[in-house]
Amino acid sequence: MKIFTHWSKKLLSALAAFAFFALPSFAKQIYLPIYGDDFYVEVPDDIASLVEEHLTEIQDALTENGITAEQVKTTMDTVNEEYEKLKTDYFATDTPYQTIVNGLNGFCDDLNDTLPNTQTLQNVWAESWIGMLIPNVKFGFGVNAGVATLDISNLLEVADALAIDTGDIRDFTENYDNKLVFPTVAADLRIGGIILPFDLGVSFVTFDTRDWNQIDSNIAPCAFDYFTLGGDLRWKLFNLGGKFFHVRGSLSGGGYYTKGGVEVSDDDIGAGANLDFRSTTLFAGFQMSAKALCFVPFVGGRLLFTKSSVDWEAKANWSKILEGASSAVTTPSGDVIDPIQIAIDNDILPTKFSGGSSSSWGVRPQLYGGLGIDLFIIDITVSGSYDFAKEILGGAVSVRFSI
Predict the structure, then answer these.
(1) Which residues are CB-neighbours of 151 under 8 A, at least 6 positions away?
(2) What DSSP character marks residue 118?
(3) pLDDT tens-digit profile of 273-297?
(4) The CA-based dihedral angle spanning residues 45, 48, 50, 52, taken in that order and rounded to the nearest 10 degrees
């Protein structure tokens, strides 16, 4: 912490962190032993951890500048009074710091829940087993577009605390309890087995919402980008019937890896948050399908073994948020200064902070099914899924060239 030559500036730069987020009723008392055994400063829960981290530096500054207990109390009263005006007129929340931290950590958990479901939407084929590559030459390739529900309530709270306008995405999700459909657009390929009765599929995704104007405008100021690579092997259990009427069943296993990011930002005020995520999903499952002429209904179940992690960074521009606010105070010596700006300039009021969340390997059951339409060399598949553990719905449509 920078040491000011004038005691009043140091006093208020030290105490502004105490008062800036003050609530009408204080939640925690911080002990300042330099003023005796019974001297406490009341601090809100919102920044108690920050004050405690800087407590030694604050006390050293107060001691070095010869600040008395009476002066501390007087200055606190003045700054708290000014803060009440700011809180009423300028803040979207009484606890902006904790709202940002808790909101981003909460959204990390929401993202960790949704990612495995976006992965398993890819490369879903209606036929439980497509056949042999030799001598029948069975293979197919195409594109798959899917969505899974993602709760963005926590992310919207973060944007509010950063004073970021979320009008577009709120309008887009207002009828869906602040749930967004997280999109995937994948290319996939599947080939039949050789000698042994299996088939092998692979899928690839690279997606950035900023490349899709309609999506980008609807979810502004948020943006998503990610990369996914995965594959699976399905082993035939049975194949009953002929070419146009048959019932098939298979066991499957595979895995997916996803890496990407989420951003919510406003360049006009210089504030925002960025999240980097990684997710690995392994799965084992069973699928059964029945073909009648060109229609192929199917149903299956999977056990997902998932592990995800998210790291985040946030930047708050308190000066812009409080632009136009009158926060000047007069010190006991008669100087008029702005304690909030002093706190910002000296990093007592943090403008950048970071955190993250990770999940250990967990097991989640998933049910999926749908309908395929076999139009000779064109296959169309509509599928849906439900994650019982996280109560997440997903759906996808695939169009493929297949022989």
Answers:
(1) 110, 177, 178, 179, 180
(2) H
(3) 999 999 999 999 999 999 999 999 9
(4) -170
Closest CA to 182 of 142, 155, 164: 155
> CA of 228: how far to CAs of 201, 304, 348, 398, in Å?
14, 16, 40, 17
Beta-carbon contacts of residue 211 (< 8 Å; ≥ 6 apart): none
Radius of gyration from C-alpha coordinates of the chain: 29
Q: In whole angstroms, what is the distance from residue 58 CA to residue 86 CA?
A: 24
| 3-state SS assignment for residue 262 | strand
- Given a contact cutoff of 8 angstroms between Cβ atoms, the answer to whether 168 and 103 are in contact is no
What DSSP designation does 221 have? T
Residue 36 contacts residue 45 (beta carbons within 8 Å)? no
For 58-130, strand residue ranges (E) read none
Residue 219 CA to residue 184 CA, distance in Å, equals 15
Q: Which of 80, 138, 167 is nearest to 374 (CA)?
A: 138
DSSP line for 277-299: EEEEEEEEEEEEEEEETTEEEEE
The single-letter DSSP state of residue 398 is E
Task: Look up residue 247 and give its two tokens.
Answer: 């019932």
For the entire predicted model, the pTM comes to 0.75
Residue 229 phi, psi dihedral angles, 5° rounding: -135, 135
What number of H helices and E strands is found in the chain?
Answer: 10, 16
The pLDDT tens digits of the residues spanning 76-110 come to 565 555 555 555 565 666 677 778 888 888 888 88
Rounded to an integer, what distance in angstroms lies between the CA atom of residue 365 and that of residue 358? 20
Tokens of 2: 């920078």
Buried b (16+ CB within 10 A) or exposed e, 211-233: eeeebbebbbbbbbebebbbbbe
Nearest-angstrom CA–CA distance, 17 and 40: 15
